Amino acid sequence: MPELPDVERAVREIRLVGLGKEIARVDTHEDAIVYTGVTHQDFADEVSGRIIVQVGRYGKVFYLLLSGEGRMPVLHFGMTGMIQVKGGPATYYKSSKNLVRDEWPPRFMKFILHFSDGVQLAFMDARRLGRIRLCLDPLHESPISKLGFDPLLCMPSLDKFAELMKRRSCPVKALLLDQKFSAGVGNWVADEILYHARVHPERRCNTLTETELDSLHRQTETVCRVAVDADADEEKFPEDWLFKHRWDKGKKNARRSGTLKLPSGAPATIKWTTVGGRTSAYIDELQKPYALSSALEEPLQDEADAGMDAANGDSVLTELSDEPEHARPFSSKRKKIAAASRPRKKRAGDAGDG
């Protein structure tokens, strides 16, 4: 799914080709799912003839402020949404590359804005999980009004951030993914934040130390800033980022030979688990499921009870996971107890068969 840096890149593209220009005509494709609270024809009628005076973003949502009376387009990419200027590349998310074709109008087009100077801008969505809305006041209406803080636009103070974290008992990765907490943070951004903060994705929020909270606060803003400054171009991301190494997943305990390094220079071990229903990558040597401090050398009891099995790398079924990988309905211990409680079938030759 396109995350904060990807959406910011799209916003910059729209500003570059459309800011200050009149939308002379709008071509639309009917889609009662993607168009929310408005028909495709009403969208075209209300947007046509107006000038783009501002392009903004909040979290993963972006919007166009237009001249004159009427509502403003408020857009969300969903899983596979993207924009494309005719004659240029699409601003696709990494996993959506295979959906891009060299054709116009593009496949999965929902609308095309025709500007007065001849430039054309398309919005596409293959899986139809994106949303197209019209709002009178985008920043004060749903969906933006229901979102949490944006790490680049309104990052809370450390004290407020720590307060919001410590009042929750869910896994920290699940909270970072909650758009009502941190708008714009998605799966890979959350993993990157946790990696640089040296916090395991399944740590419970209310068990985090002051040092960890401080690091999480700094990295939440820093990771988003660095990714945006790189224009969401993975080739420009730092070489020591987890993003550069997480995609060749292979097996759960696979080690990317000689790629990502530990501070010692030894190869890092990338492991995966499922948190909040999403696959989470982490570095086994650096991100532990318990606090690393001189005062706390053993795993917290509630973390140990959560089912972390360091010996075989099995994923953990957290309270917010919906489809954990390799999920097991019963632990090995429970299976043994259940087997022991079942009556054993008698076989020929057993005592008492006479």
UniProtKB/TrEMBL annotation:
GO MF annotation list: damaged DNA binding; DNA-(apurinic or apyrimidinic site) endonuclease activity; lyase activity; oxidized purine nucleobase lesion DNA N-glycosylase activity; zinc ion binding
Q: Which InterPro entries match?
A: FPG_cat (IPR012319), FPG_N (IPR035937), H2TH_FPG (IPR015886), Ribosomal_uS13-like_H2TH (IPR010979)
State the source organism's domain of life.
Eukaryota
Q: Name one GO cellular component term.
A: nucleus
Keyword annotations for this protein, in alphabetical order, are: DNA damage, DNA repair, DNA-binding, Glycosidase, Hydrolase, Lyase, Multifunctional enzyme
An example GO biological process term is: base-excision repair
Q: Which Pfam families does the entry mention?
A: Fapy_DNA_glyco (PF01149), H2TH (PF06831)
Q: Describe the location of the Formamidopyrimidine-DNA glycosylase catalytic domain by residue ranges.
A: 2-130
Compositional bias, Basic residues, is annotated for 331-347
Q: Which SMART domains match?
A: Fapy_DNA_glyco (SM00898), H2TH (SM01232)
Instruction: Give the start-end ranges of region Disordered.
Output: 304-354
Q: Please write the reaction equations for the catalytic activity of this protein.
A: Hydrolysis of DNA containing ring-opened 7-methylguanine residues, releasing 2,6-diamino-4-hydroxy-5-(N-methyl)formamidopyrimidine
As for family, the record states: Belongs to the FPG family.
Q: What name does the UniProt record give this protein?
A: DNA glycosylase/AP lyase
**Upper taxonomic classification of the species?**
Eukaryota, Fungi, Dikarya, Basidiomycota, Agaricomycotina
